[in-house]
Amino acid sequence: MDKNDAYNELKKNPKKVHFNRLCSAAELFGFRFRGGKGSHVIYRRDGIKEMLNFQNVGGWAKPYQVRQLLKIIDKYNLLKEENHV
Q1: Please, what sign has the CA dihedral across residues 74, 24, 27, 64?
Q2: Average pLDDT for residues 18-33, to the nearest whole number?
């Protein structure tokens, strides 16, 4: 899945996103897993001051956390950049 597909999938219905799908999307946009505790995981990316804190609730992501990732993608124009690896 490419960045556009992932972005559109998240944007289409942020209330129905599997937790693992959200984590995969964050990694697709260059975020790296930085640890976590319990049901929480942290993702960071060089050059972006915001940190992503996702919570697994019965296998699903919280909708506000999906929207948080979408907002960061828009703010930093991550759809327009080349693959960041």
Answers
A1: positive
A2: 98
